[in-house]
């Protein structure tokens, strides 16, 4: 089963979908974005999402969103005079400064928060679904996401930065 999910900086799972093994992750970008009520500021995904369908879905949902997807290793900038889109700017930046500098400057490392959430889901809720039918599994997955969100809301400490006491 594929279960890509959306994640917000407040550590809550804000979108989820569950499909059979024949559905590709890219086909779920628009349905995931449709679950998010407002506009998004940034969409971050791994290289598997690099392509026109993902960029189109994100722009349709939030035209001003920064799309942070590393281009494939063999990606080249178009040589014609078309306007330079976000993907082409990413390719140019990687070619001039290197992939690691591009990752740091675009906040690509935040993608690891999603991987952490998936790991948290698997360790707390479980790695296997118990329902046998796809609709039952989708319901089970939705309940698991709601449970995790509730647990985080109750247990996440609120850190407050304080000045160091002077003696």
Automatic annotation (TrEMBL):
Pfam families: DDE_Tnp_1. It comes from the Bacteria. The keyword Metal-binding does not apply. Keywords: Plasmid. Residues 13-149 form the Transposase IS4-like domain. GO terms for molecular function: DNA binding; transposase activity. GO terms for biological process: DNA transposition. This is Transposase. It comes from Rhizobium leguminosarum.
